[in-house]
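Convert to structure. Protein one:
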Amino acid sequence: MQKKLLICSSSTEKFSDDFPDLEKLIFSGKIKFSLFNEIKHKWDLVIALGGGGCMDLGKIATRENLICYPTTASGACQTSHSVVWDDDKKLTIKTTKPNHVIIKEKYIKGLPENALKNTFCDAVSHNLDVLYSINKTIESEKYAKESLQILRKAKTIREIIIAGNIAGNAIEITPTTLLHSLSYPITGKYGIPHGEALGILLKKMKDYYNFDIEKFYKIEDHNNIDFDYVVEEAFHYEKIKNFSGKISKNDLKKILMEL
């Protein structure tokens, strides 16, 4: 008999009646290494309904068949890896990609404004990281530019999620670089959600990237972040070496510490 699992968030659990006779796992936050070991490859069929964390967890839990209903623009259902946390250290775990990805209007309707802002920042950062990578290709650059163009003009949640999935195609070819490396210690040390951490960085670095995130969403200030620590920790990630921009570690600290 096939083992079947529905992974959803607390906000998407209300749709669980659409998937009867499935075990249910409600997930939010970061995927801890202990949870990774507990659920790895234990279900034959997994349906993931929610944001990037649910998508990543689905890729870990499935043995062979994964159906994703993304409700955010994380792009996680287009990549063959999942993000797992060992205490405050971010790990990238190789996985298979989903078998089917479906954007369903019923599930994305009413996405909270804060969640929409965070996922928008994540999608923008995916694209900028690709465009500022020494490993970008003609194909990944095309995806990143297409996604950014949609994000700049998007008027609906569906458009933002579509753009996020296109950005997911870009980072599947060319992994993220500076912005994501900086975001991990912010999330790991301060518990600030991934997209929110990226929003903070986009606001600080708007002149460097020539992208003013606050034309789209107001970004709150977090004055308790030790950016000296953040930069030092970020440079422990190998992917930061693929950043193509010309900026020194000290100059980066100055940009991030400016009020």
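Protein two, convert as well:
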Amino acid sequence: MSVLDAEPREGNKCHVCSTPLPKSSLICARCGAAHGEANRCPHCNTIAGTEPHPSLKHGCRVCGGPRVPASGEGVERSGKEVPDLLEAGKSARRAMGFRLLGGLVGGFGALSLVVTLLVLLVANAGFLASVFSFATISIPLLLAAWAWRKGGQHAKTRDRALDAAWSLVVADVLASRGEELTAKELGEVIQTSENEAEQLLATLRLDDHIRARVTDEGELVYSTASPARLRVAGDQLEEEFAQLEEQAAERSRARSS
């Protein structure tokens, strides 16, 4: 098995250093190697871990694309966040490109402005020449301002897509774990701070995707109905509906007789 193979070795050991993997994680505690399909990057299709990123929250260690880390015992990923992550990655590249363009063109415009001012002071040019010079210089400066504005718009789109992706993963974690979690416990699963976890949970509460309650100990815990529980509830409703139909039919037969 090569280093690129990302499935655990026999005995649930790391495929790189052969260290036993913890049951609650698919990331080797010794060398940091990632394992399993839960750690497959939607951008480069490589099974790899993530690392903190200043603007993407977490990024792939291989390609740098935005990722949402969430692995552990009982955590199942639905993959619903992938389209938002792809959108976030595309918007992030565009934001970087426009801001780089704005910086280059703006730097050229600023340098041209300094040179033009020095020339006008030394040459003592006339009014029309000065106006024409400043009008020419304004072109790269206006282009730089436009590029920065476009970069900011793509950055906002990136942030919205990231928030949506993280919220979907939080919903997956709560649904697959099938138990109440505090913001701190959720933060440990998705490798983020307790404050950021609380913000994500608050967003989901507004969308009525999760439930929250205060325990007897005064802790605020969050939960959601797992798909298995939803299926059980649906089966129970079907049985109750069938019983009601049977009872109605019996009453109808009794009245007719």
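Residues 1-5, 226-234 have pLDDT under 50 and may be disordered. Residues 127-177 form the longest helix (51 residues).
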